[in-house]
Write a structure and sequence with these properties.
Helix content is about 30%, strand content about 20%. With about 475 residues, the chain is α/β, with parallel strands linked by helices. Strand 4, helix 5 and strand 5 form a beta-alpha-beta unit. Helix 3 runs parallel beside helix 4 and helix 7 packs antiparallel against helix 8.
Length: about 475
């Protein structure tokens, strides 16, 4: 699984992928089942529908640039080799992100399916689950037996989708259903700013997809928002409807949901504050904490995690009581060498590339050091529970007061801010701060909205800037509403 930002020059190599263990089989399944992602849903569904599961390969990497050919070749080859070595198989449950790009394959997820078809045969049942941010192609729909995507963003329904996929594959392998599917892609970009499925303009469309699934003939109805940071032909929203032996119903309902997406196009206008204006707005608030959403450095979208545009403004405007998290292993080592309670001075952030601001000189003291591991007990975006951001330092920045501490958290690994435990595990009490920051767009909301008096989306530059006019697209379909006038 990988979400690949084609505008990010830093490639995703084999060493970037983390693999889950697969043996001993039952212990691996028990371990995987404790999460809240789609794979844990596969396992729950297998128990509900009487399937015997054989885990083969699960490898994922934090979003970044395209996957190297070596990594793609090795991992896909390993997947196929393990499937061929497995006992008799009736079907495959396959978790793919849907926005993976490799150096040689713009639609790398479909290429995985093409190779699987060569190995397993044209009729072998393959049920695919995708992220909500998938750029679903006609090819992968043609190559899969059934395909469904998460319905929710933030992604809180991942386990539910895994159970649904298990239910579908159970019916297919028992010859109780004959799945057929259709895809419609409206000619538009559905900007990530508007991809909160709990709010309009998307909410009523996603609600309608749920209502459709109450029809026993409709096995799955998926609305994918798409991933705008991949310059590929399939970029953009999609609707996929899977039915039981009714291709006309699948085509009709997919077109109807796609028409609903198209009908919202005039509501997708961007009018967001930049970093300077957002910091002023947060400082003028009367209820705290205020969370600033740093959208140009959306770690979950493939950016650097060391963007400094908001940090620079917080320092420049002498804001009080703020928290910023940056991935900066060099600065972490400065803190380690200094030691807890000792002075700290270093240039921080803005080091990974030229897109996310300049390094900011920070003076203060090392407040604490941590191993960077933490556990999220609640269902949060993506469903992961165990997190590791590497050796972590918390710096109390010069100008802090006991009532309004300015805190800079420096991590060794890039970490997506999907859990408020990221702060709490390092001794930061978010409810006592005036200004929090989170690098993302919609994904952090499940973690940060419950502790925030308000949230401000910030139009920052970066590799995940939400304004598509900041990018030059060469390979997308044309025209796309939201990019063309």
């Amino acid at each position: 699984m990988h979400e690949s930002d084609t505008f990010n020059p830093a490639k995703t190599g084999l060493s970037d992928f983390t693999r889950r263990r697969t043996t001993p089989r039952q212990e691996a399944l028990d371990e995987w089942s404790r999460s809240n992602d789609e794979v844990s849903g596969y396992i729950q569904g297998s128990r509900e529908y009487g399937l015997e599961l054989i885990p083969v390969l699960m490898a994922s990497a934090t979003p970044k640039g395209p996957v190297t050919d070596e990594a793609f070749r090795v991992l896909t080859g390993e997947l196929i080799a393990q499937l061929r070595a497995a006992p008799h198989l009736d079907g495959l449950l396959l978790a793919l992100h849907g926005a993976m790009v490799s150096e040689s394959y713009p639609d790398a997820d479909a290429e995985v399916l093409r190779r699987l078809r060569e190995a397993l045969g044209a009729k072998f049942p393959i049920v695919v689950t995708h992220d909500f941010h998938a750029n679903v192609s006609e090819d992968i729909v043609r190559l899969s037996t059934a395909l469904l995507t998460y319905k929710e963003n933030p992604h809180l329904d991942t386990r539910e989708r895994g159970v649904q996929a298990a239910r579908i594959v159970s019916g297919i392998v028992r010859h109780q259903i004959d799945s057929v599917q259709a895809i419609v892609k409206p000619p538009m970009i559905y900007n990530i700013v508007y991809q909160n499925t709990g709010q309009e303009p998307l909410k009523h469309i996603v609600d309608e997809s749920r209502r459709l699934e109450q029809n026993p003939k409709i096995l799955a109805a998926s609305v994918s928002g798409g991933y705008q940071f991949a310059d590929v032909p399939a970029m953009g929203p999609s609707v996929i409807v899977v039915t039981d032996h009714d291709p006309e119903l699948a085509r009709r309902e997919a077109q109807r949901l796609a028409d609903m997406l198209w009908a919202t196009r005039d509501r997708l206008k961007l009018d967001l504050p930049d970093a300077a204006a957002a910091v002023r707005q947060a400082m003028a608030a009367t209820k705290f904490p205020v969370t600033l959403i740093d959208m140009g450095d959306n770690v979950g979208g493939g950016s650097a995690a060391d963007g400094t545009f908001i940090l620079s403004e917080l320092v420049k405007q002498k804001a009080g009581g703020w928290v910023v998290v940056l991935a900066d292993p060099e600065a972490v080592q400065v803190a380690v060498r200094s030691g807890i309670g000792q002075p700290f001075e270093a240039m921080t952030g803005g080091k990974a590339d030229r897109f996310h601001g300049d390094p900011v000189k920070i003076r203060g003291r090392v407040k604490s050091l941590h191993d960077g591991r933490y556990f999220e007990p609640e269902v949060r975006h993506g469903g992961a529970q165990d997190h590791d951001q590497g050796l972590t330092a918390v710096i109390e920045v010069e100008g802090s007061t006991p009532e309004a501490q300015n805190l800079l958290m420096l991590t060794t690994q890039r970490e997506m801010p999907f859990s408020i435990q990221q702060l709490i595990s390092c001794g930061i009490q978010p409810q006592r701060q005036r200004i929090l920051t989170a690098k993302g767009v919609i994904a952090p909301l499940a973690a940060y909205a419950p502790v925030s008096a308000s949230l401000i989306q910030v139009d920052t530059p970066g590799l995940t800037a939400v304004n598509p006019k900041r990018f030059t697209y060469r390979h997308i379909r044309r025209p796309l509403f939201g990019i063309e006038p």
